[in-house]
């Protein structure tokens, strides 16, 4: 099935306007390989027909499926491990409130949100954090497929091992051959919901910490600035933002101050 340059341009425009995803040039094979199966699913004869469907308000099913298919859901356990020690040993060291809200803003299949919960519970058991601390973690993602797995908290194959030691697998999970399932105590106080970072954030409430790692690189500089401004508005005074170790906050120094905390770089909201 041929993907013409016109089809590619139209799909690229749709993805950037609706999800902030910038494909750039020479990604035709990626688009074709990920979207070709949708033609049969939705009984479309060509990519041109898919483009027509993307422009029809009534075809939200197709629009959602395209965004889902084109979303990169690469993640693993305790990714950028320094961030977790920075959270428990640094950011929360002098946290005085007894209720903590954390947002995993690109939760994918859930490993980040659950890694945060494991880190918090370990820190409370070791008395690094107060045992009376009550936390809530919200994980959001634009991909319904990824969120379904996040809610199940069951992982097989590579996702059951990448980033985990054998000790961690046996400590935090029920191991079943090639699969692992997170133990119930680490799933408490965690919820997941479908959310587009281009939407208003008011419905989510306020947070003390936001994780949005390895996502901003997919947005234009203008979109990136807009999203970071929204993070600043939804963070409580003095709140923290975690971004990917290879990402930059260039152009947002007026909103956040970069700090080195317990071996990890974090960004604290300016007052």
User: How large is the share of residues in beta strands?
Assistant: 15-25%
Per CATH, the superfamily of the largest domain is Vaccinia Virus protein VP39
How many individual domains? Answer: 2
Low-confidence stretches: none
Please, could you describe this protein's structure?
By secondary structure, the chain is an alpha/beta fold. It has two domains: 5-70, Orthogonal Bundle (Chemotaxis Receptor Methyltransferase Cher, domain 1); 82-155 and 182-269, Rossmann fold (3-Layer(aba) Sandwich). The protein is built from nine helices and ten strands. The protein has helices at 5-19, 28-41, 47-54, 60-70, 82-91, 111-125, 144-152, 166-172, 221-234, and strands at residues 99-104, 134-141, 154-156, 173-176, 179-182, 190-194, 207-211, 235-242, 256-261, 264-269. It has a seven-stranded mixed β-sheet. A three-stranded antiparallel β-sheet has the order 3-5-4. Helix 5 (82-91) crosses helix 6 (111-125). The chain is globular and about 60 Å long. The model has no long low-confidence stretch (mean pLDDT 91).
Outline the secondary-structure elements.
Blueprint: H1 5-19, H2 28-41, H3 47-54, H4 60-70, H5 82-91, E1 99-104, H6 111-125, E2 134-141, H7 144-152, E3 154-156, H8 166-172, E4 173-176, E5 179-182, E6 190-194, E7 207-211, H9 221-234, E8 235-242, E9 256-261, E10 264-269
Parallel strand pairs: 1-2, 1-7, 2-6, 7-8
Antiparallel strand pairs: 3-5, 4-5, 8-10, 9-10
Helix pairs in contact: 1-3, 2-4, 5-6
């Amino acid at each position: 099935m041929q993907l013409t340059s016109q089809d590619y341009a139209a799909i690229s425009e749709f993805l950037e306007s609706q999800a902030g995803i910038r494909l750039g040039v020479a990604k035709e094979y990626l688009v074709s390989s990920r979207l070709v199966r949708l033609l049969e699913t939705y009984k479309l004869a060509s990519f041109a027909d898919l483009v027509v469907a993307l422009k029809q308000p009534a075809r939200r099913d197709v629009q959602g499926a395209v965004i889902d298919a084109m979303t990169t859901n690469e993640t693993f356990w305790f990714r950028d491990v320094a961030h977790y020690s920075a959270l428990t040993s640094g950011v929360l060291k002098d946290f005085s409130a007894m209720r903590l809200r954390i947002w995993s803003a690109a939760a994918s299949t859930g490993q980040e949100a659950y890694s945060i919960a494991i880190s918090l519970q370990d820190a409370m058991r070791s008395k690094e954090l107060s045992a009376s601390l009550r936390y809530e973690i919200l994980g959001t993602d634009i991909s319904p497929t990824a969120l379904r797995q996040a809610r199940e908290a069951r992982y097989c194959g590579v996702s059951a091992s990448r980033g985990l030691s054998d000790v961690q697998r046996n400590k935090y999970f029920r191991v079943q051959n090639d699969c692992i399932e997170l133990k119930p105590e680490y799933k408490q106080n965690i919820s997941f919901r479908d959310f587009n970072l281009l939407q208003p954030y008011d419905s989510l409430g306020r947070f003390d910490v936001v994780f949005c790692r390895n996502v901003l690189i997919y947005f234009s500089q203008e979109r990136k600035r807009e999203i970071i401004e929204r993070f600043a508005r939804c963070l409580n005074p003095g709140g923290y933002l975690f971004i990917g170790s290879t990402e930059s906050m260039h152009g947002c120094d007026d909103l956040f101050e970069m700090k080195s905390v317990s071996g990890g770089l974090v960004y604290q909201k300016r007052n």
